[in-house]
């Protein structure tokens, strides 16, 4: 279990959506300092947050950001991209871009911050996944999130003996800019942030933040036709 009161936390993609909600919830829980990243740090609006410029796909940018935050004990890998490229019809560069952001970005951040968190006595890693980690309805986005889920599961085993716990957050549609064009039920980002941080504080391996995530996870052991209606025809 990880206490967030008084903790120093680094949140990628902290200027809007779930990231912004996480920053707000962290301060509501008494976090000592929250670093909030964005490509343009001027877009970080929380009055107490420490804005940090970051491009998660750029190793030099990641290294510079980590050098600014050497007191961190909790890393939240929230930043992501949703192109949803088709494997057959989209440019391969679009597929690569999603993997660079959604898989390699969190890996770069984790590799940069693990030594920092270790030096500070251990801590926690929270990574944003998706219900689409488990169901392939989003093209390359689903594939990148599935790969990230596997990365998180591996890191959990590697980091446990080093005093760093790992939580994966899975959620469906959330009422953010990313899902603005989606006509479907959406979760409140503040609710998702609260559930995610509850998971950190209780040491949960995974947080399933909504009904659809729980339903799809439960269905993984069943026949594929139950997950993909097209196969039942």
Automatic annotation (TrEMBL):
**Which Gene3D superfamilies does the record match to this protein?**
NAD(P)-binding Rossmann-like Domain (3.40.50.720)
Q: What keywords sit in the KW lines? A: Oxidoreductase
Per the record's keyword annotation, is Zinc included, yes or no?
A: no
Pfam (any one): adh_short
* InterPro entries attached to this UniProt entry: NAD(P)-bd_dom_sf (IPR036291), SDR_fam (IPR002347)
Q: Which family does it belong to?
A: Belongs to the short-chain dehydrogenases/reductases (SDR) family.
Name of the featured protein: SDR family oxidoreductase
């Amino acid at each position: 279990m990880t206490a967030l009161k008084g903790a120093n936390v680094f949140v990628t993609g902290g200027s809007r959506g779930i990231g912004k909600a996480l920053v707000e919830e962290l301060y509501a829980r008494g976090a000592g300092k929250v670093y909030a990243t964005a490509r343009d740090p001027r877009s970080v609006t929380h009055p107490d947050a420490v804005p940090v410029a970051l491009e998660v796909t750029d190793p030099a940018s990641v290294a510079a950001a980590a050098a600014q935050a050497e007191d961190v004990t909790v890393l939240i890998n929230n930043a992501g991209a949703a192109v949803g490229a088709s494997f057959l019809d989209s440019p391969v560069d679009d597929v690569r871009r999603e993997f660079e952001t959604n898989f390699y970005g969190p890996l770069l951040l984790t590799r940069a911050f693990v030594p920092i968190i270790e030096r500070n006595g251990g801590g926690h890693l929270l990574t944003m996944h998706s219900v689409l980690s488990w169901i392939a309805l989003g093209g390359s986005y689903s594939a990148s999130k599935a790969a990230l889920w596997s990365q998180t599961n591996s890191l959990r085993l590697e980091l446990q003996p080093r005093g760093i716990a790992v939580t994966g957050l899975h959620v469906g549609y959330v009422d953010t800019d990313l899902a603005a064009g989606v006509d479907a039920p959406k979760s409140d980002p503040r609710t998702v942030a609260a559930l995610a941080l509850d998971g950190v504080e209780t040491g949960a391996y995974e947080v399933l933040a909504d009904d659809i995530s729980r339903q799809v996870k439960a269905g993984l052991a069943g026949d594929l036709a139950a997950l993909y209606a097209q196969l039942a025809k």
